From TrEMBL:
Any coiled-coil regions, as ranges: none
GO BP terms, alphabetized: lysyl-tRNA aminoacylation
Entry protein name: EF-P lysine aminoacylase GenX
One of the Pfam families matching this protein, by short name: tRNA-synt_2
Organism, scientific name: Caulobacter sp. 602-2
C-alpha cells in the first residue's frame, strides 16, 4: 500500500509563500482586539462544546459524546457560532462584549469556506443595529490599514475598504439586480407566498423546481443574481431581510415583513451577518422548531434546542450583535487567494 500524499502546507517553500499572509493576520488580530478594548468591550471566551450547535436548517455541526464519571453518555456539539453563549452573558448583565475564537461547520470547504474557522462576534446592549454598520465599516478600514493595503481585490473584483458602505435593502437589491419583486411575495405579517416569488424569479431567468420552497427560491436569487454585484467599488450593507430569513432577528418597527438583519459584502464576498436581536423567547422557540422541522425534511436530522439559552433570553435586554468571518477579512486585506492561505494550520483534508 502506498503512503498517503503529504500535506503541502509543511513544505518550507510553501510555508514561506504563506508566511507574509500569516504575519499580517497576526497584526490584524492584535489591531482588532485593541479597537474593541478602546471602546470598552470585554473579550469573552465561549465554551466550544454546546448542547445545541445552533438551530439553522442548513448549518451542519461536528458532534461528539461527553462521558460522565459514572459512564453516562450525552451528545454535545462544537458550536457553529458563539451566539448562544454571548447572549447568556448579556442576560447575566454584560453590556459590551466580543469573542474572537474558533467555530466549526461541517460540509463546508472551498476557497472561502473551511470546516474550522475564526469568527469575530460582538454585541452592544441598548444600541441600534445601525451602529453595527458603522462598526463594520471601521473594521474594514482597520484591517486594510494594518495590512498596508488601499484596495481589496478578489476574483477580478475591487473594493475600497475606506469608502462609506452603500446601504441597500434586500427588496431593492432583488429589483435592481434581478428584476424580482420580493415584497410582492410577503404578506403584511411576513408570511411568504412561494408561488408569487417563483413566478417573479422564473421571469427573471432563475431556474425554479416544482419542489422548491419560498426559501429555496429566495436563496437562489441571492446567490445567482444579487451577491455577485455586492461590494463592488465600495462595501455594501445589504439590510432589511425578510423576517422569514432572519431566525434570530427582531422585526423592523413598523414593517413586520422585514427584520433588523444586515450582511456586509466586499468584492462579492459576504463578511458579516448582524441582527437587532430577538428577545421574545416564545417566538424564538417557535422559529427554532420551524428551522429544525425544515432540517429534518431536507437532511433527515435535527439538533436539540438549548432550553437554558431560551430561559436566559427572557432576561436579555435589547441588544444588537454581529458575526464577522475573520479569516475572510484577513484574506481580502492581505491579498490571499484562498482562505487556507491565511490559516496557520489548515484542517487536514479527508
Amino acid at each position: 500500500m502506498s503512503a498517503p500524499t503529504p500535506s503541502p502546507w509543511w513544505s518550507p517553500g510553501k510555508h514561506q509563500d504563506r508566511r507574509p499572509f500569516l504575519l499580517a493576520r497576526n497584526r490584524i488580530t492584535a489591531a482588532v482586539r485593541d479597537w474593541f478594548a478602546a471602546r470598552d468591550f470585554l473579550e469573552i471566551d465561549a465554551a466550544c462544546l454546546q448542547v445545541s450547535p445552533g438551530n439553522e436548517a442548513h448549518l451542519h455541526a461536528f458532534s461528539t459524546q461527553a462521558v460522565s464519571l459514572s459512564g453516562e453518555r450525552a451528545e454535545l456539539h462544537l458550536h457553529t457560532s458563539p451566539e448562544f453563549a454571548c447572549k447568556k452573558l448579556l442576560a447575566a448583565g454584560e453590556q459590551r462584549i466580543f469573542s474572537l475564537g474558533k467555530v466549526w461547520r461541517n460540509r463546508e470547504r472551498g476557497p472561502l469556506h473551511h470546516p474550522e474557522f475564526t469568527m469575530l462576534e460582538w454585541y452592544r446592549v441598548g444600541e441600534p443595529y445601525e451602529t453595527l454598520m458603522d462598526d463594520c465599516a471601521a473594521l474594514l478600514a482597520l484591517a486594510a490599514r494594518t495590512a498596508g493595503t488601499t484596495l481589496f481585490s478578489f476574483r477580478g473584483l475591487d473594493c475600497d475598504p475606506f469608502a462609506a458602505p452603500e446601504r441597500l435593502t434586500v427588496a431593492d437589491a432583488f429589483m435592481r439586480h434581478a428584476g424580482v419583486d420580493l415584497l410582492g411575495s410577503l404578506g403584511e405579517g411576513g408570511q411568504t407566498d412561494r408561488d408569487a416569488l417563483a413566478a417573479s424569479a422564473t421571469a427573471a431567468g432563475v431556474r425554479v423546481s416544482a419542489d422548491d420552497t419560498w426559501a429555496d427560491v429566495f436563496s437562489r436569487v441571492i446567490v445567482e443574481k444579487v451577491e455577485p454585484n455586492l461590494g463592488i467599488g465600495r462595501p455594501t450593507v445589504l439590510c432589511e431581510y425578510p423576517t422569514a430569513e432572519a431566525a434570530l432577528a427582531r422585526p423592523k418597527p413598523g414593517d413586520p415583513r422585514v427584520a433588523e438583519r444586515f450582511e456586509l459584502y466586499a468584492c462579492g464576498v459576504e463578511l458579516a451577518n448582524a441582527f437587532g436581536e430577538l428577545t421574545d423567547a416564545a417566538e424564538q422557540r417557535r422559529r427554532f422548531v420551524a428551522e429544525m422541522d425544515e432540517k429534518q425534511r431536507v437532511y433527515g436530522e435535527r439538533y436539540p434546542i438549548d432550553d437554558d439559552f431560551l430561559a436566559a433570553l427572557e432576561h436579555m435586554p435589547a441588544a444588537a450583535g454581529s458575526a464577522l468571518g475573520f479569516d475572510r477579512l484577513a484574506l481580502l486585506a492581505t491579498g490571499a487567494r484562498r482562505i487556507d492561505e491565511v490559516l496557520w494550520v489548515p484542517v487536514a483534508e479527508v
